[in-house]
Structure prediction request, 133 residues.
Amino acid sequence: MKSKTTRKKPDFSKLALETLAVRAGTRRTAEYQEHSEAMFLTSSFCFDSAELAADGFAHADQGFIYSRFTNPTVSMFQDRLAALEGGEACIATASGMSAILTMAMAHLQAGDHVVCSRSVFGATIQLFSNILG
Prediction:
């Protein structure tokens, strides 16, 4: 199974915002050692055998297997945004609604009440009132 690079995160605390915007989160491929990060526009990744693919899906948090879960481009973006915001980590989602749902599912539990302005995206009200309500 191809795995994510396990490396110690560099200390970005002394770098200027402009440097972080360009360099934070950059991972170079071992084969090409490109100057800037590559764009991985693939939906899936190759495995040497069906067994390695099955193991990859069983341990999806340990490598790149399917781009709906994660891929190197998204991982680099998340690392860069976390560094820019001074955060430990970042989660990127495909849409604003998926970000709102992810936040709600991480922080709310049965019986909680949500106070939400009516001047938000309409589907947000639908989510809180009818789906999670």
